Amino acid sequence: MIEKKPVWERFSYGYLYRESKKRLRNFHKLCANIPISDKELFVAIDNRLKVAAQVIKRDNSFFGHLFNRFLFEKVGVIDITGNQLKRLLELAGQQPVEIIDIARDYEIDYGELVELLEKALLIVN
Q: How far apart are CA 70 and CA 108, in angstroms?
């Protein structure tokens, strides 16, 4: 007996998702190798600290906490690229505990990032 195919067939989104994820990962690796200046580094980290401060402030109320949950924001944790983290540790004069892959993203505590930024600013200035 011959089976009839349905009039419409489900389009496979898995392939498109995997391909776009692979291309974005390659683009991220390419951008990670671009050197950044001290000023660009300090501006980028300062912007991340401002956003993290807003997240912490917003988390004090019920609706702010709910809003953070919808946006998948982590309170007190900042995402930073491996390139930025490696450069910041070099400027602060600290040795990393483990080898830092510049193509990866790392999560760092808010207080630790503030301390690293202050040390780096003191050494640079």
A: 21
